[in-house]
Amino acid sequence: MKYFFRSARVALALSLSLCSFAPLRVQAHVGNHPSVHDTVAGIIERMKKEMTAEQLREVTLPQVEKFLTAKEREILANEHITFKVNVPVRVTVLHDAKLANDPFWLAERGFKATGVSVKEGKNVYDAWEKDFPAGEVGLGVHALTGSGNHYLISLAPKNAGDKIQVTDLYPGNLRLTEFRSGVEPYVDQIDVLRNVPAELAGQTLIQVDSEREEDARLVNVFRWTQYPATEKPDQIVLTWSDDPKTTQAIQWRTSTKIKNGFVSFQKKSEFNRFNPRKPAKVAAVTTKLETPTLLNDQVVHRHTAVLRNLEPGTTYVYSVGDGSDGGWTELAEFTTAPAGTKPFSFVYMGDAQNGLDRWGSLVHQAFRSRPDVAFYVMAGDIINRGAERNDWDSFFYNSADIYDRRQLVPAIGNHECQGGRPRLYLEQFALPKNGPTTIEAKRAYSFEYGNALFVVLDSNLSAKAQTQWLEEKLSHTKATWKFAVYHHPAYSSGGNRDNLEVREEWVPLFDKYHVDLALQGHDHAYLRTYPMKGNQRVKDTKTGTVYIISVSGTKHYSQAAHDYTEFGMTNVSTYQVLDIQISGNRLVYRAYDTEGKLRDEFVIEK
Q1: Angle at the Cα of 498 (from 496 to 503), degrees rounded to 5?
Q2: pLDDT tens by residue, 311-340
Q3: Which helix (H) or strand (E) holds 74?
Q4: Nearest to 500, CA basis, from 509, 518, 488
Q5: How many angstroms separate the most distant Cα atoms in the chain?
Q6: Among residues 199, 197, 201, 175, which one has the least CA distance to residue 188?
């Protein structure tokens, strides 16, 4: 299992000189040939035209390799990573031994296995090398299966005494360092290599992006959803894209046969089944959601409506449909945020990700046991494979009749970023666009509910790029309670899985402005820290922040001992209920398992 982190160091300008290595110049994709991304997209479309659905689902690596044209093979073998060197070099590709002959281009382009290997834990990288003259060097895609750990790259001068200068490195987020014990081989992870062979020690290491391992996945890429869209609206979900007191965003799905969407709504207090008043009606914005690798339901329509000028603290009933007399769903309801300070409760959950049917049992248990909660916070890794809509379809199916009644407040985890940009996440959820201008809209946002501020951050991206905005939100609020929601933990429940950039960039602000709770995910082992300030345990919650990690799905990790751990447990899926009480300004926190058994609790008093 790979652990994904975005580090502040990723954002450092590549023009900085690292160790004795030459400066780099950032370069985007160039050339008259299609990119790897476009080439793979073209291959997928050609496969769909020339193979049956059954063949696509069962296609093997040899079949895919045989299917490629000569031009496609050339691009996949040369254009994944490119750079220029000033002197002749010996390039060593450290290839995940589990992949055997995948990718095809190593042997095809004359790389030779040296017998040297790098071993780290259960991972073994076999060394393959080839000499290149001064000039441009191009390396191919990681694997057509998309599996294994992304290969590593080490450079040594061919001639003794030559000093290597690397320029025009593509992709631009890659960087150089010395290949030595303790080095981080990936730009997006903090895991390190400690067993560096003497043959490679001291060479120039190109630190690569682990998330690009699936750039050319053509085997096991086609999917089949158990829950295809129909003409009847489903996947109805409430989110906020603006002020929770006066607005409500509602999203749903239909097949492409339905061209329009509407929301019919009115105050619950004015609804009378026997003497009904005419409800208000708002048109939705309808867009196509396309998933080219989904065989049985490639294109669906997503409908999004935002209701405005609502009254605070008011329950409304609503229905969605196509506007025809028989095209409406059964009534559901939502409640707007209160105008003033009133008690409220919410549910927080860590990673759902795997076993979404079992997770569905947990979230329904939460809804049955605490129907009074106002909304649900999910701290990332909502699903396992964020670029595959069948996973999202399973998530919506298993949360049916909950998120159409209680608002969902999501954060982005690394699994939403499968393949890079979390496109399906961003296209399926209407969220506030009030986040930092330094990153893409909706990836970080904030809102106030009652006397509480919620700041949702994206720990997959540079934390530093969000720091100024975070401080503005924390410094300008008058909220009594402050919550930070993000995925990668500042204080890990496992081994070496702390997000160091979060500690460096965000934790000082949590200390300065006294964030009460940091609600995290990622580690799949439950953790509650002591109150922390300045990376040290402090005596109480009046001065320190409590950091939580929870997991609501079925995948669990082991837990390491840490001096900041006040309570931890493993192999337990939980949901957390947080009650904000006005009398005495108390927060009561309780964690429950799937059976509703209380597993952890504490109280914060202001």
Answers
A1: 145
A2: 999 999 999 999 998 899 999 999 999 998
A3: helix 70-78
A4: 488
A5: 92
A6: 175
